[in-house]
Amino acid sequence: MNHMQVFLTYSDIALASGLIIIVLLISWQLRLKLTSTLLMAAVRTIVQLSFIGLILAWIFAREQWYEVLLILTIMTLIAGSAAKNRVKRSYKGLLTDTLIAVGTSATLVTAIAMIVILRVQPWYTPQFIIPILGLILGNSLTAISLTSNQLIETFHEQQGRIEMMLSLSARPFEAVHEQIRAAITNGMTPTLNSMLVVGIVSLPGMMTGQILAGADPTQAVRYQIVTMFLICVSSTLGCTISALLIYRRFFNKNQQFTLPR
Asked: If 187 and its partner were Cys, which of 142, 143, 196, 235 is the partner (CB 3.0–4.6 Å)?
């Protein structure tokens, strides 16, 4: 059985871009006031992906470890900054905390994927490590930002309750354990929901892209299973690290509950 491959041209991209007009019409008709945001998002999508496509093509052709490492570092820094920017209540040191949470979880899980599961040689092969890290970072930063946002908000809103529990001889972690548990659960919800319906309600982007590119569907499925588990582990680690770092920010050396600047 022959598998047809479809190669997209710039005219195909232009036709797909024209579909945005439907969204703009809906926004205008319902007065959603999203026109400028939609246009900006569409333009940035084209520009950013075209730019990264050129960079990746150059890196894939050279395969130099230091260039790959530079790209991975930049991706991680941007992800950490994006996670921090999604938190409504900021404090001094939040960027550092989100960078540690994102960087530690994504680096650890990506290393396991490259060395233990895929056994890619060399480990810095850009064709594998860049898209895998990108998938992990994109999902981890969402989970971490959800956890951080809820936990910080809860600490501010429930300051009196936490201080009351401390006054009743509760240990610091005991006083905020319920809030930490709820925040981590909230951060993990999108990932868990995605895992529950994958293959039944939705076909993930990575799997769909491989199939459209002519890959064997069974191999595409295996890659998707691996990436889903990697995302789940990375998100869990990231949420946990983020919650613990925030917890430490809200207690001083004397184990007293304080609101950071």
From this structure: 143
